[in-house]
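hey so i finally got around to running the thing on that chain from the lab meeting. sorry it took forever, my laptop kept dying and i had to restart like 3 times. anyway pasting the input first so we r on the same page abt which one it is
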Amino acid sequence: MNLEMDITVNSKHGLHVRPCTSLVKICMSDPSVTVKIKNVSEDSDYVDGKSMMQVSSLRAAYGQVLHFVFIGDKPQGLADRVEDFFSRLD
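ok and heres what got predicted. didnt touch it at all, straight out
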């Protein structure tokens, strides 16, 4: 099953190293779900959400939109955790 969602980066500092690390840790927390992320605002290619190097290459700035694709049997739990992470990012 695939689950897709768009999230706007609401942190004034964008998705710098610390939040990238936290996001990757969240994505890695469910090995049964594959996570692909694209910076829609920059029209980037999809990157592996479980790779720090690839996620940081998105260079997501404040106000930019990220498109997430969660692929697996039960992706909803991981998608909810990612959404919650971004809602608390400042």
